[in-house]
Amino acid sequence: MSDVGAAIGQTLSPEALEGLLRRIGAERYHNRHPYHRRMTAGELSKGELQAWALNRYCYQAAIPRKDAIIIARSSDPAFRAAWRSRIEEHDGSDGWNGGIARWLHLATSLGLDAEVVKSERLALPATRFAVGAYLSFCAERSFLEAVASSLTELFSPVIIAERVPAMLAKYDYITRDTLVYFERRPEQASRDSDFALAYVLEHADTAERQQAVVDALVHKCDILWAMLDALDHAYGAGEAIPPGAFIPEH
Amino acid sequence: MSDVGAAIGQTLSPEALEGLLRRIGAERYHNRHPYHRRMTAGELSKGELQAWALNRYCYQAAIPRKDAIIIARSSDPAFRAAWRSRIEEHDGSDGWNGGIARWLHLATSLGLDAEVVKSERLALPATRFAVGAYLSFCAERSFLEAVASSLTELFSPVIIAERVPAMLAKYDYITRDTLVYFERRPEQASRDSDFALAYVLEHADTAERQQAVVDALVHKCDILWAMLDALDHAYGAGEAIPPGAFIPEH
Known about the structure:
Radius of gyration of chain A: 18 Å
CATH superfamily of chain A: Heme oxygenase-like
Distance between the termini of chain A: 39 Å
Number of helices of chain A: 11
Number of domains of chain A: 1
Shape of chain A: globular
Largest interface: A-B, 31 and 31 residues
Order of helices and strands of chain A: HHHHHHHHHHH
Oligomer: homodimer
Strand content of chain A: under 5%
Helix content of chain A: 55-70%
Number of strands of chain A: 0
CATH class of chain A: Mainly Alpha
Mean pLDDT of chain A: 96
CATH topology of chain A: Heme Oxygenase, Chain A
């Protein structure tokens, strides 16, 4: 077991805390998951990619709700206004011209039916539970922990930089248009995670709060990892699709 | 007692339901409260106006949180995007260039200190409890009831049309600049309440749901009324200011 999750004994400097958070990402972010590794190696079947897009849609669709939960908990108008841009990006100006629509485009470009994807009814139960755990965490834990749980965005430019060129190179049915969702994400994620990181480094000013922040990021990494675990179990080598879940055409 | 609150025996047509909701406003909206009547009659002392602005700030400041709660509960991106404009108007683009800032301007124009108002520490406990009841209602009741509780906005153009000309005419220290908050509100409230009313009329399609919607609007009217009751008791004729609350200079 890594020492990254070890208890923080004394209050860290902001620089040391940031270093620890980045080490958590390096060890636990889902770009290290076998499902992602197989994706970038060109080893996923089309059905496995479809299952990924369909399940991940549930997560994408819940993100604005998660961010609204965080906004609802803030009594600082300036914080709320800054955080609001996250919702604007995912929902767009009318609900269907932002990031959720672009993820739906990814799913339909892989051959899935838009209404089926939007209904979420063929998603894995484990996906829904993981997404629900994220919403509950942001609603029920301290405000600082809710903000800290967003810090996986620190690492999303890495996974996107691995994913996009590999998918374009390895799957002949995937084009730049398929992956248009990812074009704006690195810039958005970078700006959003800069803001969240600055907030966390400023407010996690005791060993106890720093531990809470570290645990929140670990928890969020667990959520993303569990989603790929569920995909791997259902659609990977030993294909074991639970009742009612998406069944790829073979 | 009015029959407006009476139980709905059978499912009403959308037109009949709208009529009932508007009758509730006509009977229960806080433009009928003695404190408002005294305000428009020019009978409030400056201290009473200050107390009103200071306490009402707590309500204004909580509105974006209430709206974020409603957004967090919606799984419809189009609904969320439409409802989001409410937050944009109150928080503005940076937190302090929207409706909350304009209400703060009203309060400081009446001679109050901005930091004291923003801290909310001199507000009446009853104000805080009423605001908290509104947030809890929107978080805990059905989504339809949460939306319906916003329908007091149907009546806000009425109270603003009563308030603004009367305040300009009756209080020599109040100018158009003092009341700039109200300039954009009738248009915003009208657009927002049209959207909410259409949602409610579409979704309150059983007698049970219609009753829930009626009760939600009554509850919200109660919240606004209770805030003026508390002001009246604390700062009105029998001045009885609770410990720790704002004390006007005499």
